[in-house]
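Many introductory courses stop at the sequence. We go one step further.
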Amino acid sequence: MGDSVSQAGIGHVDTCPGEPLDREYLHKNYLSLGCGDVLLDVFRIYLESAPLKLEQIRTLLDEARLDGLVGVAHGLKGESGSVGGRYVLAAAAALEKAARAGDLEEALRLLPELEQQFQRLIATIEQELAA
């Protein structure tokens, strides 16, 4: 399985600005350790769990429940970091910070960016798994 990850393009470091996946991180933490198969499993788990967290975030924002939002945004931040999703990680971190500060307006303002980066990351992970 590790070979399919390298063939999918993850095996080489790509520092192209705007790339949703931090390929250097993936190489350092998975591929260089011979754990390409683990990375594929992590991708699959992310595709199952992360969309649920994003839906929870939307619901919590709709209900103005910033206390609950802190934990869910923190969880999405961590999960996104584990797959090298640098822009989702950053957007989730900003949302978590706004929620901790009690700033509902800022949290609502940040949601579209999180959603956009999330969709880009999901599409990229799906392409990697299909390759």
